[in-house]
UniProtKB/TrEMBL annotation:
<keyword id="KW-0254">Endocytosis</keyword>
<dbReference type="GO" id="GO:0033572">
    <property type="term" value="P:transferrin transport"/>
</dbReference>
<dbReference type="Pfam" id="PF04389">
    <property type="entry name" value="Peptidase_M28"/>
</dbReference>
<keyword id="KW-1003">Cell membrane</keyword>
<keyword id="KW-0449">Lipoprotein</keyword>
<keyword id="KW-0812">Transmembrane</keyword>
<comment type="function">
    <text>Cellular uptake of iron occurs via receptor-mediated endocytosis of ligand-occupied transferrin receptor into specialized endosomes. Endosomal acidification leads to iron release. The apotransferrin-receptor complex is then recycled to the cell surface with a return to neutral pH and the concomitant loss of affinity of apotransferrin for its receptor. Transferrin receptor is necessary for development of erythrocytes and the nervous system. Acts as a lipid sensor that regulates mitochondrial fusion by regulating activation of the JNK pathway.</text>
</comment>
<dbReference type="GO" id="GO:0009897">
    <property type="term" value="C:external side of plasma membrane"/>
</dbReference>
<comment type="subunit">
    <text>Homodimer; disulfide-linked.</text>
</comment>
<dbReference type="GO" id="GO:0042470">
    <property type="term" value="C:melanosome"/>
</dbReference>
<keyword id="KW-1133">Transmembrane helix</keyword>
<dbReference type="InterPro" id="IPR039373">
    <property type="entry name" value="Peptidase_M28B"/>
</dbReference>
<feature type="domain" description="Transferrin receptor-like dimerisation">
    <location>
        <begin position="652"/>
        <end position="762"/>
    </location>
</feature>
<dbReference type="GO" id="GO:0006879">
    <property type="term" value="P:intracellular iron ion homeostasis"/>
</dbReference>
<dbReference type="Pfam" id="PF04253">
    <property type="entry name" value="TFR_dimer"/>
</dbReference>
<feature type="region of interest" description="Disordered">
    <location>
        <begin position="44"/>
        <end position="72"/>
    </location>
</feature>
<dbReference type="InterPro" id="IPR007365">
    <property type="entry name" value="TFR-like_dimer_dom"/>
</dbReference>
Length: 773
């Protein structure tokens, strides 16, 4: 009765008369079942038939109520109203409580996600097992053995594997098989490149004093045809050598320069000669620098650049529509290598003065003279431009957290001849690192956070053609995902350790050397053996255009390192048919296997560190000192030139100095963020790593065309946009050249905004950028 009375009272509160059923849905579980509380608010079903429907409310006036006010406000009714309100409150509380419980079960907290309730059946959370760094390196070193390296050296040695040849393709297939056996799902990258080879019939020729010398060696990408002029001995053909000849008032226009091999690349020698309007260049190996037979042929290329020079800045895929373009680095004058015996015959017939300091060569029975205007010499180059199909071969060990971020380890596979030091050692070491890493990942708890890509390049002898074409083909994605490149080319030719690298990788190199044992004294670290008082001065060398890592660094903006065990004089057999196993063993004092294992440990531990740590081991503050050193030198030169009246006072450096400060502050702030970051926060680590990865890419100048200036890096690249070119411009003004104020202003502006943009990107979000400039 009490419940009936409550229903009646509630009905009267809401418009007088009781109506139909109302259901309250308390909970709804994941399976869709409903738990309901049902209240019947009408005790007399016949009352609905008396006209209280919606239609009657819309078409008729409501009936008058015959219930008196006194009866509505009786104590009994008030009591029933209180009971009804209390009942509604209890029902509402139950609805809210059960709904809250269901929400908690549907959306667990972070703590519950990491440590599920014992009473709940939840799927296990996938995690990446982590081993101590010392355990990882110990396993790596134990699996990389000299025995396994020796076997790979035997398997991948070949007497003939020039780019695009059957021997090159056979090695590529063998690599594919190895990578497949390691479970790496290998793939290939096919390119159709144009290279210049020696004449298909006959040889290139040099004629002097009515005697013709047929030369079997050649320089790819030389201008073809004939040239004739007076011979001129130009030492090594370096800029300072040619400047000395100019100081002697010697006109080099149209002359055929005879230069020694070494010091700089053939491409640089030819470019220097062309800059003084020489007619042709002959390059020979002087016995003072090369200890091989006088009739040994030299091979090389003279493209002042990397990649296929007939597809500059874009890839040579088969489906590419090739425009009529060619690299600005192709020479316009003929260039040819000649044997030492040919050089001796020519030098014996030269007249002119004896240059002071340039007569230190080893040609027998020869007095080194510059040559006179009457010493005419003719050069005929008949090289043939051909198209070759080349294959790059890849394998990958995928990361377990950031699989789309990867370090690339690469090695050249082709060579002019046996190429034992040039390519066999690097290729064998690449295979051994792939095998070792695959075994560690498959058989231990080590799971790399990021991926490792193993790459075997073809056409490296023509100027890193295979590697550069790959970079050009996938540039838009590579410089967002490939965070480092480690080169294994020519990694062992002597006992002394040297390296060329991005400043971002200096700290990584240093820490790795401290963890790797010396190949000559296993009780000492390699760092303690090579460092001395200043390890950077003892170990690091500038990265030049001929470096195999250069296109990664200066073209793609990927932090790169190439290192080598070398000798004081260098390895004399590069670019000859004498780069054999026997000669390399002799050059390394029979320690080839030990040196190769040490090189493998250096490359492997750098790669492991880069894929193991939560945050990339790349030091963004290292570029602060590099930028500061360049800007300080520029500032000093400008002040001196302004004080002497060679530059106008209105040329200000304050904005370049400000951009330098912006980068330093942004780098310091990022370092602070790294030091105070939560390594368990995967998303935070990824954001920081992306900022680190962007530094090298942001140092590529956006103001120059890659077609004309492919090496856009303002610190390590080449072209008028670089800080080096700005310094050279100021030096030329200091030496007497007239100042090109407009060009200087343009160089200052581009450098300033390039550095400032890099600083802004390094700062992170747009609201964190440094706007003090």
């Amino acid at each position: 009765m009490a419940m009936d009375q409550a229903r009646s009272t509630i009905s009267k509160i809401f418009n007088g008369e009781p109506r139909s059923y109302t259901r309250f849905n308390l909970t709804q579980n994941m399976e869709g079942d409903n738990s309901q509380v049902e209240m019947k608010l009408s005790s007399d079903m016949e009352e609905e038939a008396e006209g209280n429907g919606v239609g009657e409310h819309m078409n008729h006036h409501p009936r008058p109520s015959y219930v008196s006010k006194s009866s509505q406000r009786s104590p009994r009714n008030i009591c029933f109203m209180g009971i009804a309100i209390l009942l509604l409150f209890i029902i509402g509380y139950l609805v809210g409580y059960l709904a809250h419980r269901k929400a908690d079960k549907t959306y667990p907290s972070c703590a519950e996600d990491l440590a599920p309730d014992d009473g709940e059946d939840m799927a296990p959370i996938e995690t990446v097992p982590s081993l101590d760094w010392s355990d990882i390196t110990a396993m790596f070193k134990s699996k990389l053995t000299t025995d396994s390296i020796e076997k790979s050296l035997s398997d991948f040695s070949s007497d003939s594997h020039q780019a695009g040849s059957p021997g090159d393709e056979a090695l590529a297939n063998k690599l594919m098989g190895r990578f497949k056996s390691y479970g790496m799902n290998p793939w290939t990258d096919e390119h159709f490149v144009r290279v210049q080879d020696r004449p298909t019939s006959g040889t290139n020729k040099v004629t002097f004093q009515n005697k013709t010398y047929a030369e079997s060696g050649f320089l790819s990408y030389s201008a073809t045809g004939s040239a004739q002029g007076a011979a001129l001995y130009a030492y090594y053909g370096q800029v300072e050598d040619l400047r000395r000849l100019q100081d002697l008032r010697i006109n080099m226009s149209g002359r055929v320069l005879l230069v020694r091999a070494g010091k700089i690349t053939p491409a640089e020698k030819v470019a220097n000669a062309a800059s003084v309007n020489a007619g042709a260049v002959l390059i020979y190996p002087d016995p003072a620098d090369y200890s091989f037979e006088r009739d040994t042929d030299l091979f090389g290329h003279v493209h002042l650049g990397c990649g296929d020079p007939y597809t500059p800045a874009f890839p040579s895929f088969n489906h590419t529509q090739f425009p009529p373009a060619k690299s600005s680095g192709l020479p316009a004058i003929p260039a040819q290598t000649i044997r030492a015996s040919t050089a001796a015959a020519i030098m014996k017939g030269l007249g002119g003065d004896s240059p002071r300091g340039w007569g230190d060569g080893g040609l027998r029975d020869v007095v080194y003279k510059l040559g006179s205007e009457s010493d005419l010499i003719a050069v005929e180059v008949n090289n043939v431009l051909t198209e070759k199909k080349i294959h790059n071969v890849f394998g990958v060990i995928k990361g377990f957290i950031d699989a789309d971020r990867y370090v690339v380890i690469g090695a050249q596979r082709d060579a002019w001849g046996p190429g034992y030091a040039r390519s066999t050692v690097g290729t064998s070491l690449l295979v051994e690192l792939a095998r070792t890493f695959s075994e560690i990942v498959a058989k231990t708890e080590f799971k790399p956070r990021r991926s490792i890509v193993f790459a075997s390049w073809s056409a490296g002898e023509y100027g890193a053609v295979g590697a550069t074409e790959w970079l050009e083909g996938y540039l838009s994605s590579l410089n967002m995902k490939a965070f480092s490149y480690i080169s294994l080319d020519a990694v062992v030719t002597g006992p002394f350790f040297k390296a060329s690298a991005s400043p971002l990788m200096y700290d990584l190199i240093q820490s790795t050397l401290k963890e790797v044992s010396s190949p000559t004294n296993g009780s000492r670290s390699l760092y303690s053996e090579v460092a001395g008082s200043n390890w950077e001065a003892a170990v690091l060398e500038p990265m030049r255009m001929s470096d195999p890592a250069y296109p990664f660094q200066a073209f793609s903006g990927i932090p790169s390192v190439s290192f080598r065990f070398t000798s004081d004089k260098g390895y004399p057999f590069f670019g000859t048919m004498l780069d054999t196993k026997e000669n390399l063993y002799n050059a390394t004092s029979m320690n080839l296997l030990v040196l190769t294992k040490t090189a493998g440990e250096i490359a492997g531990q750098m790669a492991l560190r880069l894929v193991h740590d939560h945050l990339l081991r790349l030091n963004v503050e290292a570029y602060s000192s590099t930028i500061r050193a360049n800007v300080a030198q520029i500032n000093k030169e400008v002040i001196l030139l302004q004080s002497s009246g060679r530059l106008p006072k209105k040329l200000k450096l304050q904005w370049l100095l400000s951009a330098m400060g912006s980068y330093s502050r942004a780098a310091s702030k990022l370092t602070f963020s790294i030091e105070n970051s939560n390594l368990k926060d995967t998303e935070q680590c990824r954001i920081i790593n992306d900022r680190i990865m962007a530094v090298e890419r942001d140092l590529l100048s956006p103001y120059v065309c890659p077609l004309e200036s492919p090496f856009r890096h303002i610190l390590l690249g080449s072209g008028s946009h670089t800080l080096g070119a700005l310094r050279a411009h100021l030096a030329a003004i200091k030496d007497g050249s007239s100042a090109d104020t407009d060009l200087l202003r343009n160089q200052f502006a581009l450098a300033t905004w390039n550095i400032q943009s890099c600083a802004d990107a390094l700062a992170g979000s747009v609201w964190d950028t440094d706007n003090e400039i």
